[in-house]
Each structure stands twice: as C-alpha cells, then as structure tokens.
Design a protein that fits this description.
412 residues, alpha+beta, six-stranded antiparallel sheet, 21 strands, globular
C-alpha cells in the first residue's frame, strides 16, 4: 500500500520554465556544469552544483558550497523566478524524445514506504555520494531533484492522467537537447482523491533511477525526526519528491560495454574462448544491435559478431539470468579477467543514447573491444527488486532524463 501524496510545489514561472529546467546534477563533470551555468544563468544547475559559483580549485564539498546553494535558491524565490503553488497538487509530466512519449505523475512518496520496502531498491549506494546530497537537501531545506519511480500500471490513475492531458498545459517547451517537456497541474479535489486512493491499492513502487537521491532524502527525513521528537509523520520532511511512471510507459535503453584489451589473448584465442559459452557468428562491418534477450553484438578489429548465449549458461534466477550478468560471468570475468566493473579501469560503459557508432569509435580509438547489449526490461528490474536482490552495476540506462528545477519540494 503506497502513499503518494500531492504537495505545495515551488516551481518556475511559466515564462522562464524552459530556462530554469536543468539535467540532473550528476550527468555533468565540474567543467561541463560550469559551462552550462555560464551559458544559461537561470539554469537550476547553479543550485544543484553550487561549486560553479567558486573557483575551479575550490573544494566542491566545502560547507560554503551548500550555503551558496541555499542563498541562490532564496534569490530565485525573492526575484519571482520561482513561485509557490499555494495549494497541494499533483502534476502530470510528459517527456517526448525521438517521437516517443512517456508520461509520469509528480508527487511525494513516503520515507516510511522506503524503510518498509514498499519502495523497492535494486542498487547499492555509495556513502560519499549520499553525504553530498544529504548536505544539499538539509541546508537548502528542499529536495531539488525528483526521484524516478516506476509502478505497475493502474487504470484509475491512468484515466485521471489522460483526462488532464486534454487540458491546456502549465509548461510546454523543447529543451536544447531536443526533448519536449509538457506539464499539467492536477488540483481538482476528486482527482486528487482518486490518485491518492489509486496508489493505496498498489503494493510496490520501484526506484528506476535515483537511488542516491532517495537514500539521501530518507536520511534527511530521519535526521529531522530526531530533531523533532514530537513529529506527527505528516511533516514535509517525511516525504520525498518523485515522478512515478506506469511500467508500460517506460523504455530502458541498452547500457553497452567497451574493453581496453583482450587480456593477453590473440584475436583467434579470444574467439575460441568466447565460443565455449556463446554461439559466435561473424556479421560483417555493419553495426549489430541485438533484437532479443540472450544475444549480444561484439565489435573487434573492424568486424561485428553476434554472440548467442548457449542454453547451458542461461538462468531463471532474476539476477544471474540478466544479459549483463551472462556477459560478466561467462566472458568478462573468466576470459578478460575483469572482476569488478566498478573499479577496473580496463572497462568503460556507453549509454545506448549514444548509438553503436560510438562503440566503434571507442574500440578504434582508446579501447579494443565493444559489446552492444539487449536492454534490461522493466519486468526484469521489477523481478530483481521483488526478490530483494541487487542488479549488477550499469544494468539500466533511462532516457530521457527528468529535469531538475521544474518542481521543488520544500521540507517546511
């Protein structure tokens, strides 16, 4: 039984929403973040990455950086760039990329649902990354980046969303990367009740993207509870900003691999080793994109191959049966000696949004070998989470990315 409640959002004025909206803080390195902020002074990235307001050699985790973020947020409120909604609402948020749309619902999830596993995880978090966002949320007194959640589609919620989409939107703009963002407000009492009740009938919500932001929001909420022993559970710090998508709206892209060398093997030796676990077929010079689970593209010395997992290595286990696990367990670890993809410098990862030509480019430039993957499905993500297990690193790539700054959840 999930609790997803409406909230009194802080959000941009309609005429500046397209300038304020920014990609998530963690898609940029420091130099890229600085360039974005210089290019668009209203970008919310200056708050999410307030080190852009200091010299490049200034410690991005210094307390002054988080205080600067708080000051910049307050300035945008005082200047009327960000305005308070004035009442509790949900929002419909549609993103359209390459002609394909996915529509989610903006609301606030309960930290208790995270703690009792109604909101399910599939990824480990790193403490250093958590601490950064804990400080940011706590000092700004606001959650600035929404968590990307998924749930099994529910018809009563779908009906409200489809009805609202027939009304004039609150925001409607195309971002510089070509992604169209459209937002509608839901403030009618009967619609609010229908959505709230609809989520109460849903047993599980899943973190699709944003494990660190979720963990940070929850830890700030727990900290506030300690500071306010008389808390009721209804305070805003008990909830975290989310965009929730029904499963049938979502598409996970491939998360491809490039490898530095063949671990001392010749090309012929490597192909022979690969053939122990996979049927290896030479495909020629044209990039090969897998069209079904259990198949992989492989690019080596100007030639593409199709690898098909043999029956004996396939598994019905939610984790071991994932394509990323098959490749890791049958080829990357035993043949190429890549044991921990989080730390091994001989492997890198390329999001499917960049296309197969990027794999060729990397293999011909600074790497030796590339693998194109069949995307992990949303059902596989659900199965891993339901089993209480963790996905291997770099299993999923979601596009398009939710924008920060369109909805801000103040903690009170």
């Amino acid at each position: 039984m999930a609790t997803i409640r409406p909230f009194n959002a802080l959000r941009p004025r309609e005429d500046v929403a397209s300038k304020v909206a920014a990609l998530p803080y963690d898609v940029y390195n420091r130099e890229e973040a600085l360039q974005e902020v210089l290019k668009e002074p209203l970008s919310f990235l200056k708050i999410d990455r307030a080190e852009t307001q200091f010299d490049m050699d200034f410690n991005p985790y210094d307390a002054k950086v988080y205080e600067k973020a708080k000051d910049l947020l307050q300035e945008m409120i005082e200047e009327g760039i960000l305005v308070k909604e004035g009442k509790d609402c949900y929002y419909v948020y549609e993103l359209t990329m390459n002609g394909r749309s996915q529509t989610g619902l903006v609301g606030c999830a309960a930290i208790d649902d995270y703690l009792n596993n109604v909101v399910k995880k599939h990824e480990k978090t790193r403490e250093d990354k958590e601490i950064d966002r804990i400080k940011h949320v706590d000092i700004c007194n606001a959650q600035t980046g929404p968590i990307f959640l998924a749930y099994r589609s529910q018809e009563t919620i779908n009906q409200v969303v489809e009805g609202i989409k027939k009304e004039p939107p609150l925001y409607d703009f195309i971002a510089p990367d070509g992604v169209k963002h459209t937002v509608w407000k839901i403030d009618k009492t009967s619609d609010l009740v229908t959505i709230y009740t609809g989520f109460k009938s849903i047993q599980s919500i899943y973190i699709a993207d944003g494990h660190h932001r979720t963990a940070s929001a929850v830890k700030v909420g727990l900290k506030r509870r300690e500071e306010n022993p008389g808390y009721t559970g209804n305070e805003e710090f008990n909830f975290f900003l989310s965009v929730l998508f029904p499963h049938d709206q979502l598409m996970i892209l491939d998360y491809n691999r490039v490898v530095k060398d063949l671990n001392g093997h010749s090309k012929e030796e490597f192909l022979t080793q690969a053939a122990n676990s996979f049927l290896v077929e030479e495909m020629g010079a044209e990039p090969f994109k897998p069209s079904e689970k259990g198949t992989f593209g492989m690019y080596l010395e100007g030639v593409w191959y199709k690898l098909t997992a043999k029956d004996e290595i396939r598994s019905t286990d939610p984790v071991e049966g994932l394509d990323v696990a098959l490749l890791q367990n049958q080829l990357l670890t035993p043949v190429l000696n890549i044991k921990d993809i989080r730390t091994d410098k001989r492997i890198d990862f390329v999001g499917g949004i960049r296309g197969l030509k990027e794999l060729e480019k990397r293999a011909n430039r600074d790497m030796k070998l590339a693998f194109s993957m069949f995307p992990t499905s949303i059902d596989e993500l659900f199965a891993v989470s339901d089993a209480g297990q963790l996905m291997p690193p770099k299993s999923t790539w979601f596009e398009p990315k939710l924008r920060s700054g369109l909805f801000i959840h103040e903690l009170g």
